[in-house]
Each structure stands twice: as structure tokens, then as C-alpha cells.
Amino acid sequence: MSNRLEQPRRGMLLVISSPSGAGKSSLSRRLVQDNDRLVLSVSATTRGPRPGEVDGREYAFVTPARFKTLVADNAFLEWAEVHEQAYGSPRAPIMEHLEAGRDVLFDIDWQGAQSIAKAEPDDTVRVFILPPSLGDLAKRLRARAQDSEAVIERRLGRALGEIDHWREYDYVLVNDDFEETYTRLAAIYAAEGLKRRRNLWIEPLVARLVAEG
Q1: pTM for the structure as a whole
Q2: Domains in the chain: how many in total?
Q3: Is residue 32 part of a domain?
Q4: Domain range holding 163?
């Protein structure tokens, strides 16, 4: 799928959240891969890379001291501490994409979603991904073999608190089948991109049509 950029528009901030292991990262990567106009916001984080992660691709890995400096410089659109680590979305590249008509996808938790929606309410679209059950969530976390059992137990313990924020989102999807969930997510993205306020070319076109009449 390819999205054209010829018609002037303002981008959107597409925020996808879920408890850890519910599938938001896989869904996010697929949506970015399938849409030329959509770019993934690369968050800065103080946690270390997991197996297979590359600095600057999944995250920008920084020291706690560097992160504090960035916070002091107001360099983040949002930042929060999650699972004893800090995460933040760099402000400058995000706003550049938005003004250029590109959409930015955020794979972040509910705290970050709140901050982004507060900072840019007219541009933000929030989607929450639910697991079909907590048992399924536990299986997914253990199957990916990226964290210790202690970390997995902490993530499961926090899942209900994260799920409790579902009412703050514009859309809620249950990821019981990846392909079906992805199809619905792609439909949400396409529909939001067609909203009148994001398509800056409509008003001058209407003005020209009226003038021609």
C-alpha cells in the first residue's frame, strides 16, 4: 500500500498502547511497513537493548544522566518512567513530520498517550490493544523469551492497572487474531487520515469550485 503526499495535509499522531506482550509492537511495525506516509517515533530510553534490538531503530538507548539533560531541555513531547526505566518521545522530529504532512506512530504506554493527547489534542488518535485473556498474555510474554521470569511477573502484575485506562482511548481492539486485528487497525488509520481537518487541500478546492460557479 502506498499513500500519496501530493495534496497538502497535516499529519496525525497515532498512539498505540497495550499491556506488555499484547501485540502493539508487531501491529505497529506492520502498519508502518505498509504505509509510506507513516513513520515510527523512536523513543529514547534508559533501559538496555533486548536481543535483536538496534540503537536508533527500536529505541535510542541513552544513559540516565543524558535522559535527565534532555528532560531539562524540554526535548521530549512526552516522557514517563515505566517498569523502573525512563522513556521519552523526542519533540523536534515529531513536529517536523506533523507539519510536513506525515503521520507519526507511537508505540507507548498509557502515561505517554495521556501526555501526547494533552500536548496535541487535535492531532492525536489513540488505539488500545487488549489481550483476549491474562493467561494468553502470560504465554506471549514467556514465548518471546526476552525477559527474566521476575520481569515477566512484574509486567503481568501491572497489566490490570494498564488495562484500566482503556476508556481514555478513541478505539479499543482485542488482539485474539493478529491478521484480523491488523485489518481493523489499518481501517482506523485510513479513516482518520480522511478527516476534513487533516486535509488542507479541501478548503481551497471548494473555494475554487465556488468561484467557478
Answers
A1: 0.84
A2: 1
A3: yes
A4: 13-41+103-212
